[in-house]
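**Reference record**
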Amino acid sequence: MSLRTSRPARAGQYLALLCYLVFLAFPFLWLISTAFKPAPELGSLHPTWIPENPTLDNFRQAFDEQPLLRAAANSLIAALSAGVIAVVIATPMAYVMARHRTRLSTAATGWVVVSQAFPFVLLIIPLFLVLKNLHLINTLWGLIMVYVVWALPFALWMLVGYVRAVPPELEEAAAVDGAGRLRTLVSVTAPLLAPGIVATALFAFITAWNEFFFALVLLKTPEKQTLPVVLTHFLGAEGASDLGPLAAAAFLATLPSLVLFAVIQRRITGGMLAGAVKS
């Protein structure tokens, strides 16, 4: 009887999951379809899923109208720098918080989680004033500093989970064998943390690559603007948009995030689960 009732329930779960996946995939699939449609099909009153006459003109026009390569280079510099710096700062902090559990470290972990609830609007004014005093407004380094600060809480929380998943007995065994503290961290702990460090760095990279609000406020010179900001230049007055080139440029800008997230999604899940296990 239980088997009969479980099969319909399982089928219902799979159906709900399929509907959810279709719901999530619909915008991206429609974006791809729009990117390859010629102008007459874009203005048709009866749109189709698959372009009848697929073309690459939208991609050519997008590169002709806006400096996408320069904007992509700016985004790449900012995202890579933010990911690397955030991991370099967060890794030793996460190790200390995971290995030395005190009330202070518990409170710090709680504050890390709570800080993620702060909206961007509350932070932009003090950040702007700080960067202005440091003469970093309208610079990629100023934007990188903001991205590092924004990525640090989640990177720290994520790495704490990975550190706690490494058995302390391994470090104790290395110490018994005569390895010093530094040798133990480099030879024993660091290799086990490598997947978590890579996943955290890639997550910080994706967050910075897709970020729009801080880049819009802090970068004013067109030569220094990032890719998400340049995409808004396809929007004209009163909401009018150059739909074909916009879809083509947005499709190209989305690819790096999708590819990287597909690579790291299992490691991200593993780090979250590791953080929930108590030794």
